[in-house]
Sequence to fold (228 residues):
Amino acid sequence: QKEVEQNSGPLSVPEGAIASLNCTYSDRVSQSFFWYRQYSGKSPELIMSIYSNGDKEDGRFTAQLNKASQYVSLLIRDSQPSDSATYLCAVERYSGNTGKLIFGQGTTLQVKP
Amino acid sequence: DADVTQTPRNRITKTGKRIMLECSQTKGHDRMYWYRQDPGLGLRLIYYSFDVKDINKGEISDGYSVSRQAQAKFSLSLESAIPNQTALYFCATSDPGDGGTGELFFGEGSRLTVL
Fold:
């Protein structure tokens, strides 16, 4: 089992729909979770971080965390063609006092006009 | 200019050659990282450095070495390149203020092809 797992997709949604991206992780003690967006041929950029169970909203983006189920998701409301990208889930794994990010393989999202 | 600059952006080399990828940053961050990205495998950590005197192996350090020449410069070397090191390499920086990673700021990537 991979430490951080995502469905590689592609996930295709029509413009204006809600896109739901999912991520599961194996380390029960993980406390910090991140979503990065990567456009084709570009570098990743952080769009959301979440540390507590529940929802965190930022504009059209909502991150959801359920530590009991070891599950983190990203919802994109009113999806736009400009949201078409690969979304990388990252989970912080600690060794002693030092954290390192472990990335999933990414989910490719296609938003069709 | 980009805050995190990688050179070269593209490189084609042959098996057995020594290759150096360079990274420089103007963000003033102490922490620097080298990741590699392969299709279907996401980003994997090769090495990371918390300051000039603190360098640590990541998940996949075999076949790689690094040098932190200054706070702003972190180089990745492949002493004897092999084809399965063909990948997209990213340098990143962060300044979390605690033991965690914080937000990573990535360079534009260096695409390496080993023939």
Notes: The first strand of chain B starts at residue 4 and ends at 7. Chain B has no helices and eleven strands. Chain B touches chain A at residues 40-45, 48, 56, 58-59, 90, 99-101, 103-104, 106-109 (CB under 8 Å). The mean pLDDT of chain B is 94.
